[in-house]
């Protein structure tokens, strides 16, 4: 396939816009984009109708005038006779370079942005306005205003979540589901903590079928929230309001207005994520400490990418840990830049492990708690699985924001079609939902190949499978890889039962020899 084609056009008076444009070109080519960089007046403007993707970088001179090397383009693009669908095939972005001490701050960029939209162009994002008066050149996306007194509405309650349905729950409006049980289902000596967690979704409007997934919004650990606030000198109980700096930008829907610092850090900022190169670039701009700034610049440079990988990516060092490694920089971060610096927490998806036909108003998941060691002293922990494992409904009410969506697994609707399921370890979760659903519908041609390490340590739902076998609703084939000297996996069982698998795939009646083989443990 041809690589995506990008055009960067600049109007520059002193060379700054050209320098920015050439840097954009280098970044684009580094990402395998085919990219051209040209001054606006050196580009045949009539060809613009054939360009799929364009970035315009424009300075403003004098009292709102375009730079000399884009005046011809400027005259052409504002011709009255141009059809309003001229640029309907073009996606674009506009970056303005201006000075807010002038009355017509970034006038050229703002006017060009409006005109390109008038001509049918699709804006990839609102016009971006650089300010030479700003200490960083580019202002933050939001202004964060601390409140002197905490209002009654400023609390740690999840914003946008609900316990009563108006429409199906979604990321914009999750359902606060009550956690009913949180039970470890692996043996005490097993290396991995695996949990069977059940939620009450009564009144949620959530509907799901076998193969669907549930998405959960996790929270940062309280100890990490405290550590982050200490590093940045923030009071977790202080409240603030957010104000977008540009009119076309809206505040994040998941943040209440007003909001507490604790809520922002615990439920929105992904301080446990592994930061990207752009994190180090912005951090270097914010740093007042020479030694730390030099190191951050080195890590964010093209020449420093191997060192950045060794420092951050390979050991999975988190944003919080990086901030603790650069204490002078962390302490100087303006709160306005928190949402530019740290990404928001993303929802995690889990296969639903139960059927509404077997467990009405309930939703179950099987969660392997992620924990592993790198060369760093502290073990690496999965944000969502560790948070879920820490919740104990026996100690008091626990609510978790969630919603469901269609998954990638579908099962046949015809009642006589046999289904072969291969689910090693926690991968068996969606097949448990499928078996429950199919049995409730009277479909008994269910064949499950399940594998784990040891029968007495991680054989999930053993009693349930055996009861279904006795009822003639399930054929179970197991492989316990560590219960004998020679390791046995599900692929070995599939090979042993090749004739059975072929008969089922070929939609023929199962021969008696295969039936006997399937009964073997």
UniProtKB/TrEMBL annotation:
Protein name listed in UniProt: NADPH-dependent diflavin oxidoreductase 1
Q: Which GO terms describe its biological process?
A: iron-sulfur cluster assembly
Q: Please give the family membership noted in the entry.
A: Belongs to the NADPH-dependent diflavin oxidoreductase NDOR1 family.
Q: Where does FAD bind?
A: 316, 348-351, 382-385
Which class of enzymes does this protein belong to? oxidoreductase
Q: Name one Pfam family in it.
A: Flavodoxin_1
Give the residues the record marks as binding FMN: 12-17, 59-62, 97-106, 132
Instruction: Provide the function of this protein.
Output: NADPH-dependent reductase which is a central component of the cytosolic iron-sulfur (Fe-S) protein assembly (CIA) machinery. Transfers electrons from NADPH via its FAD and FMN prosthetic groups to the [2Fe-2S] cluster of CIAPIN1, another key component of the CIA machinery. In turn, this reduced cluster provides electrons for assembly of cytosolic iron-sulfur cluster proteins. It can also reduce the [2Fe-2S] cluster of CISD1 and activate this protein implicated in Fe/S cluster repair. In vitro can fully activate methionine synthase/MTR in the presence of soluble cytochrome b5/CYB5A.
Q: Which GO terms describe its cellular component?
A: cytosol; nucleus; perinuclear region of cytoplasm
Which residues of this UniProt protein bind NADP(+)? 426, 481-482, 487-491
Single GO molecular function: NADP binding
This protein's assembly is summarised as: Interacts with CIAPIN1; as part of the cytosolic iron-sulfur (Fe-S) protein assembly (CIA) machinery. Interacts with DCPS.
What does the record give as the reaction this protein catalyses? 2 oxidized [2Fe-2S]-[protein] + NADPH = 2 reduced [2Fe-2S]-[protein] + NADP(+) + H(+)
Q: Which residues belong to any copy of the Flavodoxin-like domain?
A: 6-151
* EC numbers for this chain: 1.18.1.-
Which keywords belong to this entry? Cytoplasm, FAD, Flavoprotein, FMN, NADP, Oxidoreductase
Where does the protein end up? Cytoplasm, Perinuclear region
Q: Which PROSITE patterns match?
A: FAD_FR, FLAVODOXIN_LIKE
